[in-house]
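Example 3.
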Amino acid sequence: MKKTDNTYSRRSFLKVSSLSGGGFMLGISWLASAKPEETLSALNVEPIWQELTSYIKITPENVIKIFSPNPEFGQNVMTSLPMLIAEELDVDFKSIVVEQASYNPALFNRQFTGGSQSIRSAWKLLRTAGASARQMILTAASQAWNVPVLELTTSKGQVKHAASGKSGSYGSFSTAASKLPVPKDIVLKANKGFRLLGTPQKNVEGTKIVHGKPLFGMDYTEAGMLIAMTERPPAFGMRLKSYDATAAKKMPGIVDVFTIQVYEPTQKLAMFDTRSFNEVIAVVGKTTWDVMNARKKLNVVWENAPDTKEIMNNRETIVPGGLESTTKHYADMLDMDKKPGQIQRKDGEPEKAFESAKHVIERTYTAPFLAHNIMEPTNTFAHFQGNKVRFVAPIQGPDFIANTIATRLGIPKENIEINLARMGGGFGRRAYGHYMVEAALISKQANAPIKLVYSREDDVSGGIYRPTYQLTYRAAFDENKRLTAMHIKGGGIPESPLHANRFPAGALDNYMAESWSIPSNITVGAFRAPRSNFNAAAEQSFLDEIAEYMGKDPIAFRLELLQRAKDNPVGKNNDYDAARYMGVLELVRDKSGWGKPENANKKRGVSAYFCHNSYAAQVIDLRVKDGQVIVDHVTSAVDCGVVVNPEGAKNMAEGAAIDGIGNALFGNLTFTEGRTNQKNFDTYRMIRHNEAPKKIDVHFVANETDPTGLGEPPFPPIFGAMANALYKATGKRLYKQPFGNQIG
Amino acid sequence: MIKKFTLRINKKPQTVEVDENMPLLWVLRDVLDLKGTKYGCGVGSCGACTVHLNGIAVRSCQLPISSLANQNITTIEGLAEKADHPVQKAWLDVDVAQCGYCQSGQIMSAAALLKSNPNPSEEDIDNFMSGNICRCGTYTRIKKAIQQAAAKK
């Protein structure tokens, strides 16, 4: 048994209350960091403490309900977060009721799905909640039976006293427990004592999903609700000039047509306020079909937008006017590569090393814009009444957008009610809640409850995309083919992907990283493992190519570099743990049978990457037949610390491999004169069943490290493994994503 | 033009008065409040809206209501009253879903596949299921669930 981290117990207080009709409700309410404490101590800043509460409810009938605080978008936290509570509470997981909590910043901590942080930030908090409730029930039982607490045991929601043979349900003690003070020194189980954590548990909403129950925002309906859609500029760099809605308003089922300004022109915007277009035409009607048809009858004149000032994150930025095209983007990026960038890191004397090099390898990698293609298109329900607004919203970050809604609608934040709907995918797209502002404004103007729905075309052609990126890697070698320096220069439209302090920084005496960016009016944002999802492809392809030049095995070469970073790291700001990095490479090497002979039907590539505090490595076995890539096997090794729910975790890592292979081979959003050339799944190619790997094996590094996150880390490396395996299969190194159209 | 249509949905007659061009998808979702059939693309490219028309898998976003009078339509809600169709049971056993949004359509396609081909090969599954997109990447689990459902039939 180990004591709860002092940081938590010292700063915590817990609340308990009785349920009407008897029973027990434990509101764990304490001051906890908004960020994991180790991150804060690394940054050497005083944490900003915020209140947090999570709930366990136990009725006298022994109905045990656990609220899952974080938004669910397929990462299965609605199963794994309650498991943390259930482990320490000692209840039968299959008999408890799990309910999605609503957004409530006064009661819950960090209701944000993103950054692979849900389990990580809840790890101690939710276990402490479970342990506290259990302790109080034990105390109540000891008082009722007049026996010492130490003689009591628990199992599956029952308290037992072996000596007297007495037993009782948690529910039978819940009312008495609710009158007790909350224990101060909570002791959590040691990892080896876990009975539930580490065992596979099925998705708690699985049955509802296979029965087609209305779980998603898109499925929400209520009496009097109208459907709204918005007509938006057909191109980035354009805006509304004028419109005539006479014909549209005469269409069947149409209630109203009007324009909304998503934000006030002078409104200060925050990080997740990004929206593609600010003035849009709202069409409100009875059914989705009615509204879709009426949109076609709108007569709209669009015009080119000038440069526009915007205050984002307290910085004035200029969104440039102009209609952008992909061909020019790639030409502009090559130009930027020739100019000096901003130096982000420099170790040793890289310039000298390159001057005296006997051989230099230089390669430039690019990747296109990507659309999120969340399977459930963007939507939300909103009902604005008086100075209150109620939402049923698929949203990753309700707290971010609540501030913006309050400002834009001029209402207090506490007047905003957000019920969290299950999300049909997110991948970063639903971190940007502008659609909730739009829906609130439309509901206010239409004076009715509305559900705002984006068409697939709206989502694809006016998204918040993964940026276009470029990275140039240079490596210097001496006369013995020894690697003497590396230089990385990267940028993108409109942001640079560079992580200057990541591997191989720290493993090289002479190293330099430079960054640049090109402004754009195309809106971009988080996309599963932002920046890492490109960096891994470029870095891991380059390491493969230089290993080949040096005559080294790709895994042995990476391990050699990591050993150096582990034993004698260069520089102080390296943001990875070389030992854990090596751990996943060694595991994937052993599990994939690396080193066994390849043949025409089995070509292999490896890749490893660190992001969001976790480590992943993959080996792909593939063959190319008639220009088609057939992936026979993916072996994945992941170190995400303690695995809470192995079945859910495997599913995530398998999905990351498939999603990554799909984007590496096919993902491509291109622009002509500000317009996307792809509008829907008939033109935007997604990976399909017949292109998925035949087999995926996922292995987790067994350790006792507290969980470090899983949603994103297995996604980036697969891009590199694909590039390296394709080289083996075709003899051609590929530098430009997507790879699918360059094979055969 | 708004007209009256009678369909047989999940073995029950349903009369609706809608625009004759309204696709079955929106009749199901917006008129009959059967939300299990999902909107994904509206162009027949993703399979999220798959239902059975006289036992055959079809994309409901591509079927105008006027073409369906007196036809038998089965949606995910009607596949099995207690959600215990062999395909649904296999889906739960394999724990297929991540976000879950595309899974109604995947299940309806899989059920139609097994009806016409009770013992599909891997290639049969790939070919039949390739019209159903899943961005979460649950394809390998879907295949496993279909194989399991086929083995238990």
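Confidence is low (pLDDT under 50) at residues 1-13, 28-53 of chain A. Chain A has three domains: 2-210, 217-309+378-453, 468-742.
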